Amino acid sequence: MTTYEAGDVTLEQVREFVWEIPKSGGMNVPARILASESLLDEISEDKTLEQLRNSTYLPGVRKYALCMPDGHQGYGFPVGGVAGIDAENGCISPGAVGYDINCGVRMMRTNLTYDDVRGHEEELVDALFEAVPSGLGGGGVHEGTVDDVDAILSRGMDWALENGYAVRDDLEHCEDEGYRPEGNPDKVSEKARNRGKNQVGSLGSGNHFLEVQRVTDVFREDVAADFGLSEDQIVVLIHCGSRGLGHQVCTDYLRKIEQAHSGLLNQLPDRELAAAPAGSQLAEDYYEAMCAAINYAWVNRQLIMHRTREVFADVFDRDWEAMEMDLLYDVAHNIAKRETHTVDGEETDLFVHRKGATRAFPASHPEVPAAYRDVGQPIIIPGSMGAGSYVLRGGDRSLEETFGSTAHGAGRLMSRTQAKNEYWGEDVRDDLRDQQQVYVKAQSGATVAEEAPGVYKDVDEVVRVSDALGIGDKVAWTFPVCNIKG
Question: Is the keyword Nucleotide-binding in the record (predicted)?
Fold first, then answer.
């Protein structure tokens, strides 16, 4: 058997691209890493494998805990981590969802081609930067009241539709139609709701962005046609989450769980994995608060898309409807959802925690939107500003292998501090413009340095592994035209 040594962790190769940390000690199940050896070399450089092994100590973990090919160290639970935890006899862990609840991505199609946009890049990036709030702190497309926030937390994208920020087609092309009915604003603290009232429709900071892209390659023409994608087409990718509201929800419940369930916490190898037992009041409260933050994040991305449509209408002097600026899909990648999966031959209700991992349901799954049910759920995998992004579809083996999940991006190689020491933001911006015709605008040079292309893993390799394993099949590749960041 082929093995891979990474410090005090020994991995055994199950088959190509599948590695396992065997169950031992207090582990409830084995841990699996989906990676090529080159990706594994990078994954093993930080605490990702240790965190993945620790996650198997969570009560009720079924089959195995998983790390996707883009995995890297996170808060307690690795980014790129997936765990299906028994919803009746297990637990739910805020750390295995993350602070940015329903951080996710959406892609909007257009009928524009790259030639239509060339010559307008600087005008477009300046207008988008002016129109879409970004950076730390407040400011949003809709700066409302706490009552508005409560309505968003309760109703998700239905609120956006009723308030003129969405059309019905947007809801039909969003995961869960942009609405988790369990969302309960009463379980969200006043502090969180106050943080959210001035941030609806804002990118925030860090790795969040709005990027105009062109489709450069199509790998599966039949699927791409069903997705409405073709070579040289202009699309828009939006990546952000639930902003300060979601961060506060995670913080609030981590503290509550640490105090109320210290007995369970003491059984775990890392306090950052703090979890509430399934069926407990705190588990139910957190789930309802998390679902409310999920609703908020969907509305946040919707309002950014609404403002983007307005900018394109101004720059190109035609209605957004005439440019067919329709939502391809919106999918979350920081989330825990109650789903039914086959485990040991039985249908089992699980809290499927996906932290930096994307749902990847295959064709015919009832939760895939009707428009895509024959071909599989769209998956959007952002790369760096200099490497492009991928559109995939849910693979036939995803349910069996990964609880219906795949990677969520390229995955970081370098900390933000290290990135700022190695890169100068203005140089990165100028190189992207002069060498690759990518126009970038951000709140500061430091932000650009933190997100330099060299900071990330090879997204091509991440997607190659996903495609080879049949968990997410590559459909198309897109490359940046212009990018705005917080």
Answer: yes
Assign domain 3-87+100-413+456-485 to a CATH class: alpha beta
pLDDT (average), residues 12-39:
97
The answer to whether the pTM exceeds 0.90 is yes
Annotated binding site for Mn(2+): 100, 208, 239, 333
Tell me which residue of 132, 135, 152, 134 sits closest to 193, measured CA to CA.
152
Backbone angles phi, psi at 81, to 5 degrees: -90, 145
Helices assigned H by DSSP within 109-242: 114-117, 121-131, 146-155, 157-162, 168-172, 190-196, 221-227
Give residue 416's pLDDT band: very low, low, confident or very high (50, 70, 90). confident
Model confidence at 206, in pLDDT bands (50, 70, 90)?
confident
Q: What is the mean pLDDT of the chain?
A: 96
Q: What is the DSSP letter of 272?
A: G
Given pLDDT bands bounded at 50, 70 and 90, which one contains residue 136?
Answer: confident
- Could you please report the per-residue DSSP string of 32-99? EEE--HHHHHHHTTTTHHHHHHHHTTSTTB-S-EEEEEEEE--SSSPEEEEEEEETTTSEE-GGGT-S
Considering the candidates 173, 261, 353, 408, report the single residue annotated as catalytic.
408
Tokens of 94: 């805020």
Q: Please state, in angstroms and rounded to a whole number, the distance separating the CA atoms of residues 76 and 6.
A: 19
Q: Buried (b) or exposed (e) across 62-78, using 16+ Cβ within 10 A? A: bbbbbbbbbbbbbbbbb
Q: What integer pLDDT is reported at residue 1 of this predicted model?
A: 63
Q: Is the pLDDT of residue 84 over 70?
A: yes
Question: Which residues are part of a known binding site for GMP?
Answer: 207-211, 333-334, 382-385, 389, 408-411, 485
Helix (H, G, I), strand (E, B) or coil at 212: strand
346 CB burial (10 A radius; 0-12, 13-18, 19+): exposed
The residues spanned by each domain of the chain are 3-87+100-413+456-485
**How many residues are there in the chain?**
486
The C-alpha angle with vertex 81 and arms to 41 and 25, in degrees rounded to 5, equals 85
Annotated binding site: 100, 207-211, 239, 333-334, 382-385, 389, 408-411, 485
Q: What is the pLDDT, as a whole number, of residue 135?
A: 87
pLDDT higher than threshold 90 for residue 188: yes
